[in-house]
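Question (not urgent): is this output format expected?
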Amino acid sequence: MAVIEVRDTGPGIADGDRVFERFYRAADSRTHGGAGLGLSIMAAAVQAHRDQVTVKLPTPIT
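Got this back:
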C-alpha cells in the first residue's frame, strides 16, 4: 500500500466538486490554465492498478 499526500495551493476544492471527472474545472479555477484532465488521468491510472483515490477536505476552522 502506498499513500501519497498532496496539498492544494490553488483556489481550493469545494465539497461536492467532481475533481476526478474528465474536463471538470471548479468555478474558481476557470481563470487559471489547465484542461481539467490531470486528476482524471491520475485516477484512471490508479484504478487500472486496482486501487482507489480519495479526497480528504480539511476541517474548516470555526
